[in-house]
Amino acid sequence: MAVSALRFWSLVVASALALAVGCDSQSGRKDAPTTQRADAAGLNDGSAERPLRVVLVPADGGTEQGTIADFQPVFNAVSASTGLKFDLKVAASYDAVVQGMTNERVDVAFFGPVTYHRARQAGAAELLAVAVEKGESVYFSGIFVPADSTAKVLGDLKGKSVALGDVNSTSSFYYPIAMLIAAGVDPVKDLGKVYITGSHANALAALSAGKTDAAGCAFNSFEKAVTDKQIDPTKVRLLAKSEPIPYPPLAMHRKLPPELKTKLRDGFNGIHKQPSVKPEMIRGYGGKKVDRYNADYPESEFDAAMAKLAAVTDALKGEILKKAGQ
Prior knowledge:
By secondary structure, this protein is an alpha/beta fold.
């Protein structure tokens, strides 16, 4: 599929789901004090009749069924230990998840640090838990090039084309752009072309098909694409790797009742200790097996990550989108 087609369809699907999430339920505004009853805020309570609505960002651009399959085991495990019921759905865009939370149509969400930060600033999201693997709760963004590319450093991408994912993605937009800026590459003036493909997988597909000189995405997405045989790892190589990024979090709506928040946190904190929970049920980003979940992860880690992205302003983002549309 040509990159222009990828971009067109990603925008169409994103618009469609934004409408779908917006029409899913009744009203509900934002900054009112925390209520003691979930139904008073238009939120669900985790019962069989009103399961908690979990919405996942389309991190890897796969099918809805595939993305749900990545996360269903961990929510099944939490359900087994807490009795809470969950209904998992996949958004077509990162922005749709934020809209769903601010409009009180999403109770629990999985998204990247930047998208979480936006939902938190809107007064809708509160940190629930992050995955832990080998004692750490981090992941990485990377900029990849063809194996035979002459580029040795990021500065060599001046005049070249770069494919990125969703414009609200931490690891397929914000960090790649921040990395380019830190290397002295102005993404608007110095890059030959920018493609906004809508997802990590689409950016990698454009690179694999020879439609772009470089692509930015998460390492998890690259590994998943290799595992799923969507790209040939012998034909693609890493050009630059980001510093550690706080792991994409699970968040809950801030208006959920305190007792329900506690139940959720306890469920994720103790998931790895449940006798009925097998290790393969504990999964994170991209369906990758993780050791456990940490519901006591410090919020300050996300604040620090956002500070490092200060150069990627809304104004710059607008200029990049304008360039991508040319």
